[in-house]
Amino acid sequence: MRWMNAYNLIFGKPLATTSEQSERLGIGAGIPVFGLDALSSAAYGPEAALTLLIPLGAAGVAYILPISLSIIVLLAIVFFSYRQTIAAYPSGGGSYIVASANLGVYPGLLAASALMIDYVLTAAVGISAGVGALVSAVPRLLPHTVGICMGILALITLVNLRGLRSAGIAFMAPTYLFVLTLLGALGWGVVKALFAGGHPVPVATPPHVAVSGGVATAGAWLLMQSFASGCTAMTGVEAVSNGVRAFREPTARTAQRTLTVIIGILMLMLAGIAYLCYAYGIQALPPGQNGYQSVLSMLVAAVAGRGIFYYVTIGFVLFALALSANTAFADFPRLCHAISQDGFLPYPFSIRGRRLVYTQGVFALAILAGVLLLAFRGVTDRLIPLYAIGAFLAFTLSQAGMVAHWRKHKGPGSGRSMAVNGLGALATGLTTLVVLVAKFTAGAWITAILIPALLLLMLGVHRRLNGAARSVATNSPMDIPKNEQPLVIVPVQTWNKVTRHALCLAMTLSAEVQVVHVHSEDDPPLIDTEWHELVEVPAKKAHLPVPGLVTLKSPYRYVVGPIVDYVLQVEHKNQGRQIALVVPELVAHHWYDFFLHNNRAEMLKASVLLRGNRNVAIINVPWYLKD
Amino acid sequence: MRWMNAYNLIFGKPLATTSEQSERLGIGAGIPVFGLDALSSAAYGPEAALTLLIPLGAAGVAYILPISLSIIVLLAIVFFSYRQTIAAYPSGGGSYIVASANLGVYPGLLAASALMIDYVLTAAVGISAGVGALVSAVPRLLPHTVGICMGILALITLVNLRGLRSAGIAFMAPTYLFVLTLLGALGWGVVKALFAGGHPVPVATPPHVAVSGGVATAGAWLLMQSFASGCTAMTGVEAVSNGVRAFREPTARTAQRTLTVIIGILMLMLAGIAYLCYAYGIQALPPGQNGYQSVLSMLVAAVAGRGIFYYVTIGFVLFALALSANTAFADFPRLCHAISQDGFLPYPFSIRGRRLVYTQGVFALAILAGVLLLAFRGVTDRLIPLYAIGAFLAFTLSQAGMVAHWRKHKGPGSGRSMAVNGLGALATGLTTLVVLVAKFTAGAWITAILIPALLLLMLGVHRRLNGAARSVATNSPMDIPKNEQPLVIVPVQTWNKVTRHALCLAMTLSAEVQVVHVHSEDDPPLIDTEWHELVEVPAKKAHLPVPGLVTLKSPYRYVVGPIVDYVLQVEHKNQGRQIALVVPELVAHHWYDFFLHNNRAEMLKASVLLRGNRNVAIINVPWYLKD
Predict the structure, then answer these.
(1) Do B557 and A352 touch (CB under 8 A)?
(2) pLDDT of residue A216
(3) Which distant-in-sequence residues (6+ apart) come within 8 Å of B150 by Cβ?
(4) Domain range B2-465, CATH architecture
(5) B351 contacts in chain A (CB < 8 Å)
(6) Domain A487-624 falls in which CATH fold?
(7) For the residues of B199-218, what is the DSSP string, one character each?
(8) Residue B491 dihedral angles phi and psi, to the nearest 5°
(9) What is the 3-state secondary structure (H, E, C) of B51-118?
């Protein structure tokens, strides 16, 4: 089949379960897959912190140093915590697994809900942030914002459907080019600043915001808000711990090394950005105003001027932002898989598709992120305050789970480990509270509603799935009380090869066959006159019992309804006896034939399935209309 | 079921076939159903003719008298022709039936295509003309044009789905109020004009168009174009002949009388409008220009001033226009029924729905008209030139068919009848040519392409339906060569009540049952270990042959594919033997359960039906998940 080839070309050939090893990732491919989200956060985290310092004017910039330092310290704590988590859960230690294993079902589901919402927001916000920056650079593209967003979403979805390795390879080049150019720009700037004794002269002078009637000194509340905003730089850090199984043997070590590299680079970036903002006196500009530029844009321009290097660096920043959604695509399906294994999401989320990824999870994320992008017409600025909550809540529950873990698994060094995770839990827990309070009115309240709503939904799914599983579970063997053949009913409206074939089959299945024929008030039953010759004579000749003939008058011209009514009536009379309704069906080979024939067979099957009970089986006997 | 009550309330209770008589129409209800289209044409026919006379200035108005007279004479000829047609075809003498019975298949289909396109255009143009006039009177409604159009379309569709009588009753009041007020206004005007010696003083003076460099006298070409445009006043006249069977006994007489009344009123209207335009010197205004008013609006204002009477009359004109689509809804489904009876449209068009109307035809017309209205955003002015062609082509073929009819059925008076129909054919044929030539570049060429395209489509449908019917037709009795039981295959992935029940049923159907189990590379077959206890022991105890157990390894984790492959392979090995695949299915009761369970049973059924052949039957064994 030629379309199969095209399909394979686009989505890749199916991968055998045995080739799972070769799909696993090393450090090199692991960074683009699990690190792009964390690394690209450097593009908006410091900016978010600086934006809150705008009212302080030029003096406010100095506060970026302590704020960034706090964030880097927090990052270090979280890093050591997650290193331990990976070692303790080498088969995947995402917040959901750690929290549910150590703290119980509800904390686990709470972490899962928080992370799921975080991932959906990450995917949507990452793409729209990258595209937003692109269209502000090339205003001609502005009317196509939604289209470009959806195109990138489709691309990332496709690459992820092709498998994890494929995503790693596809996004390797942009990731490393982003890291190299940005670190290069920052390093260049730091060298220049040090040579200038801490007071470098900007190549392109950053614009200054005139503050009228502003605050002279920073209050604690303002600094807390700034810190909370800056914490968005830490989102995506949990990704590696969730995907440990995706790494090559030794999985835990490879995952830990990948995490070390990612966090190391992220710390360098945050430190460099903070120092250079301070050194060059770069203030954030109020977003949405004329002449707006991002902090990174002003910073790179101050260091290197607006030459080719500037455009290349900023270009890769945008690219990395748009592709940061990829981390969500790597983790979300794994998370859904883990949840569905415990019965809190439908079973299909557990199935690995043809390329060994959890296809349903990829689809679910693509649909949810697509809906968000469409609903917000590709401009998701307003969503940014929503999503640090989810990440930090998951951090906290994961670390708290680890504390409980070490309490259960006492051994050499477990005290130290518990202290590290405990510090992590405390720090991230406090940060969660700070973010929630600081951002509550800005939109964090939506997350505070969505997370428990999702939790309740998953509990509901679990209740229904569990109920279904319990009601069909059995260990008892077959129970064949008496070998009674079913009563077979064959509806025949006209005598043709389709119905003849179906009737012949029915007669081999049971000695008791009934033919039903529905006729309307003004037409006599069609089959009556020829019954003897068509059915009775050949049945007797074959020494088989002659089928019964039942004609049903249909005053309202319905056909399907009277047949189903009759079948259910027969079932009711023969309490407990198995009834089989034969449905002769003409199968056509082209889609347009669907419009040419009546689809009574389909309607009959659906109607019996809907209204019937376990004593009514449907025997679908096809007849093919070959061309 | 409560939703059934709501359904009955909206669509009406089902009507028994026996109550068909009471659904039939008398003259009173027949006029709104079959006459609204013809009568409302008076609102745009004369205006269309006058619009072409604009270049002649005030002098041009005089030409409306001979042009209207020609149209009235043509109308009279067509009237006598159709009266005869109704008498000759008391079971429905639409153009399709008359032309195909007397001229052959192709002329019949040509008439059918022409009429179908005419009806779709009538429905769309009628509604949008009414709504267009409404929004030009109440500009606040302008942004809702499409919505109002779709609302009226939905209303007319609903009323027609409720049955013919319901449409007749619903639209009776607006139709008669329209006829009364317009005839009243015209009569009042004529009386005034006669009293004023042919030169009445207008209450509201109609605006005059200043013609600069216009034509002094009318050329033959201009008059021909004006006549062709005016002929749109005749569309809808064929409706009664198509719907003869919808009338009460004596059907032919009732239909003839209804036709007489409709045409009589239409003639009066056309004559009155023409005379008053001449008497008051009312010129058409160029449409789409500032201060545009319709001819009828100026005329009623000239006669009665812009008082309450003016608004009531014009209101009912708009109402009648918007509801004129109803005639299309009465005739189009009947036409489709006749065509599908001959096999040129799919069979479902022949089925009378729960309210005794041809439901599929109503849906088809609603969808086509809806698409037109949406595509043109509710403004269908540009479609008007398209649709006189269809009507006149159908007129011509119908009259020509009648000529052929009288030649075959010679008798007393058949010569005179043939002369009447011959004159009709000649007149309408010439008019068709005139309209085609005059309107060709304005859009009639689109109709000239669409009509043959639809004809070819119907021929294609006929070829496929015929082929299918031939390939399944048989008169030969059952053929049971040997009473061999089918080989029954039961896929079992896990042992539960669903699969156990299915296997028990399978064993009552045939002595030869195979269980297939698909497992992936890294999981061993689940069923292997318990097979002996679950199946073998009870089968032996019941003195039944033990089913075979087949395990299939699936390297790519597919389940449905390997089962279907195996079934087809078994079928191939047992050439000609009947195979039955049992599909155990868990049936849930809520729509949301669809998302919770894997729908493998549905996929398996669909895949076998798609890839299988007549030797593979599907036995769907349901298990219900009752709450």
Answers:
(1) yes
(2) 58
(3) B370, B373, B374
(4) Up-down Bundle (1.20)
(5) 557, 598
(6) Rossmann fold (3.40.50)
(7) -PPPSSPPP-PPPSS--SS-
(8) -80, 130
(9) HHCHHHHHHHHHHHHHHHHHHHHHHHHHHHHHHHHHHHCCCCCCHHHHHHHHCCHHHHHHHHHHHHHH
All residues of chain A having their beta carbon less than 8 Å from the beta carbon of residue B501 are: 614
Q: Which of A33-37, B262-266, B351-355, B392-396 has the highest mean pLDDT?
A: B262-266
Interface mutation vs chain B, best among A472, A581, A599, most B CBs within 10 Å: A472
Nearest in space to A297 (alpha carbons), one of A313, A308, A321: A313
Q: Which residues of A touch B585 (CB under 8 A)?
A: 609
Residue with tokens 């000829």: B77
Taking the C-alpha atoms of residue A372 and residue A120, their distance in angstroms, rounded to an integer, is: 9
**Backbone Cα Rg of chain B:** 33
Report, as an integer, the average pLDDT of B357-383: 88
Q: Is B305 left (phi over 0), alpha (psi -120 to 50) or beta?
A: left
Poorest-confidence range of A198-212, A260-274, B412-426? A198-212
List CB contacts (< 8 A) between B578 and chain A.
Answer: 505, 508
Amino acid at position B349, single letter: F
CA distance A103 to chain B (A): 27
Confidence (pLDDT) at B278: 94
Preferred mutation among B509, B590, B597 to probe A, highest tally of A CBs within 10 A: B509
Among A480, A498, A568, pick the best mutation site for testing chain B contact (most B Cβ within 10 A). Answer: A480
Nearest residue of B to residue A501 by CA position? Answer: B478
Q: Which two tokens stand for residue A610?
A: 């809907």
Q: Would you give the distance in Å from CA A188 to the centre of its chain?
A: 39
- Is the pLDDT assigned to residue A165 strictly greater than 90? no
Shortest Cα–Cα distance, A379 to chain B (Å): 27
pLDDT tens string B431-441 = 899 888 888 88
Show me where the domains of chain A are located. 37-211+225-465, 487-624
Separation between Cα atoms, residue A581 and residue A516, nearest integer Å: 10
Best CA proximity match to B416, nearest among B72, B92, B108, B83:
B83
pLDDT of amino acid B214: 54
ipTM of predicted complex: 0.85
DSSP for A117-175, written as a single string: HHHHHHHHHHHHHHHHHHHHHSGGGGGGHHHHHHHHHHHHHHHHHT-HHHHHHHTHHHH
- Which tokens go with A443? 């939109």
DSSP state of A443: I
Residue A547 distance to chain B (closest CA, Å): 12
Residues of B in contact with A484 (CB under 8 A): 508
CA distance A549 to chain B (A): 15
CA distance B150 to chain A (A): 25
Question: Is B621 close to A617, i.e. CB distance below 8 A?
Answer: yes
Task: Select from B539, B614, B623 the Cβ nearest to the Cβ of A614.
Answer: B623
Q: What's this model's pTM, rounded to 2 decimal places?
A: 0.83
Q: Does residue B237 have a pLDDT over 60?
A: yes
Q: How high is the pLDDT of residue B216?
A: 58
The CATH number given to A37-211+225-465 is 1.20.1740.10
Interstrand relation of A487-491 and A579-587 (parallel, antiparallel or unpaired) = parallel
Cβ contact, residue pair A509, B505, below 8 Å: no
Instruction: Give tens-digit pLDDT for A6-34.
Output: 888 888 888 888 888 888 999 999 999 99
Task: Quick: pLDDT tens for B274-307.
Answer: 999 999 999 988 876 777 788 999 999 999 998 9
Q: How many CB pairs under 8 A join A and B?
A: 239
Taking the CA of residue A20 and the nearest CA in chain B, the distance in Å comes to 11
Pick among B484, B504, B581, B620 to test the A interface (most A CBs inside 10 A): B620
